[in-house]
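Hey team,

Filing this mostly as a record. A colleague (T.K.) asked me to run one chain through the structure pipeline before their review meeting, and I want the input and output archived in the tracker in case anyone asks later how it was produced. No errors, nothing strange. Just documentation.

Input sequence:
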Amino acid sequence: MRLRNSRYGLFYGCQRFPACKATHGAHPDGKPLGVPADEETKQARIRAHDYFDRMWKRSRMARGHAYAWMQRAMGLTCDEAHIGRFTKEQCERLIALLEPELAKLRPREPLPTSFKSRDGRLEAEARVVENEHRACVGFDARAMEQEDE
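Output structure:
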């Protein structure tokens, strides 16, 4: 794949692009977004991200807490807890974890018990994992809080 420019920004395209439609997103500095994937895995990642984004946006969970929850629920390290790096099977597993929770939620409804226990232990645990996750991937806490607003 070769780094290319488009009106939407940088992306990686197949050497035979545009005849070959294989593409992969890139950060403004040219660093790849996640891990390149075949079409089937790419579609699974899109679907998993859709479910994941709906979960944290429809609940009172902050985005960072959602990533911490995903890391813990799937037994991932902070380096592995990125949908852009998931296999098709990991995407399907995340969707399977999120589907029943999404079915319980209405927009901005309080967190279901699987995310927050009555005594707050899971929420506190998620904060610990979130802080570990931030430290591991270099999150700026202030930027994340602004992003969540």
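Quick notes for T.K.: Helices lie at 39-58, 63-74, 88-104, 121-137, 141-148. Residues 39-58 form the longest helix (20 residues).
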